[in-house]
């Protein structure tokens, strides 16, 4: 994972599902940013145990930058990079299965890059299954959303799947690859947070969190230094 992220000069936001060396199936979420507005954010715990991306200082709500990033919905852990997390969680609460709950989402209306909506639904029961959903803009001129769903199961310790909103060579920024299989060296949850945090560009780090299905209220969260105004 560290090599994959080191080759990406601006990953944006990312979702990770993996299995650490001790056999735990864990999710991870991170934010990086370049602009002052992007950096003026933090991960907050809500009284209900969810994780909320919100301003680090008082400001108006921006639906593209402020959202529920992770929420437990019965047996399902849902996390991602936008307001669609709440939509998917509500659908699961109503009885929809993960693949259907991830359907019908759209990419963010932020031209010219049209940021993908990335969402993970992880099963809290034994087996460590997870479904990744990505709502992406066409690489051409077509405006209709490309919706990709990936089911991941039977990960071995040290294996993971990573999605990032962007990829950059340091000059150009494009939408991230549909998904990337990565190797994890961490042996436990705390080690995974260290590995994820250390893999991100230091000058862009905003926040990261690692959590387990059913254990979102005890998520390990790390924040970057507050943005300077």
What does it look like?
- The protein is α+β, with helices and mostly antiparallel strands and 229 residues long.
- It has one domain (2-223): Inosine monophosphate cyclohydrolase-like (Glutamine Phosphoribosylpyrophosphate, subunit 1, domain 1), CATH 3.60.20.20.
- The chain contains five helices and 15 strands.
- The chain has helices at residues 2-6, 36-39, 84-93, 98-101, 189-199; strands spanning 13-19, 25-32, 41-45, 51-55, 67-73, 76-80, 117-123, 130-136, 146-152, 159-164, 166-168, 173-175, 180-183, 205-211, 220-223.
- A seven-stranded antiparallel sheet has the order 3-4-5-6-7-8-9. It has a six-stranded antiparallel sheet with strand order 13-10-1-2-14-15, covered by helices on one side.
- The protein is globular, with a radius of gyration of 16 Å.
- The relative contact order is 0.25.
- The mean pLDDT is 94.
Which key phrases capture this entry?
globular, 15 strands, Inosine monophosphate cyclohydrolase-like domain-containing protein, 6-stranded antiparallel sheet, 229 residues, 7-stranded antiparallel sheet, Glutamine Phosphoribosylpyrophosphate, subunit 1, domain 1, alpha+beta
């Amino acid at each position: 994972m560290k090599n994959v992220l080191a080759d990406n000069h601006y990953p944006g936001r990312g979702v990770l599902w993996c299995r650490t060396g001790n056999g735990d199936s864990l999710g991870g979420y991170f934010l990086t940013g370049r602009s002052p507005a992007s950096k003026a954010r933090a991960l907050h715990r809500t009284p209900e145990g969810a994780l909320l991306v919100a301003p680090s200082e008082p400001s108006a709500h921006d639906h593209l930058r402020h959202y529920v990033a992770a929420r437990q919905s019965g047996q399902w852990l849902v996390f991602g990079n936008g307001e669609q997390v709440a939509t998917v969680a509500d659908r699961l609460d109503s009885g929809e299965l993960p693949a259907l709950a991830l359907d019908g989402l759209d990419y963010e209306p932020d031209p010219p890059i049209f940021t993908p909506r990335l969402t993970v639904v992880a099963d809290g029961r034994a087996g460590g299954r997870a479904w990744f959903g990505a709502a992406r803009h066409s690489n051409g001129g077509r405006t209709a959303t490309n919706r990709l769903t990936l089911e991941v199961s039977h990960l071995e310790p040290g294996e993971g799947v990573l999605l990032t909103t962007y990829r950059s060579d340091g000059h150009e920024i494009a939408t991230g690859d549909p998904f990337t299989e990565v190797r994890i060296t961490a042996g436990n949850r705390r080690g995974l947070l260290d590995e994820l945090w250390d893999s991100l560009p230091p000058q862009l780090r905003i926040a990261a969190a690692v959590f387990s299905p059913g254990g979102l209220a005890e998520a390990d969260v790390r924040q970057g230094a507050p943005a300077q105004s």
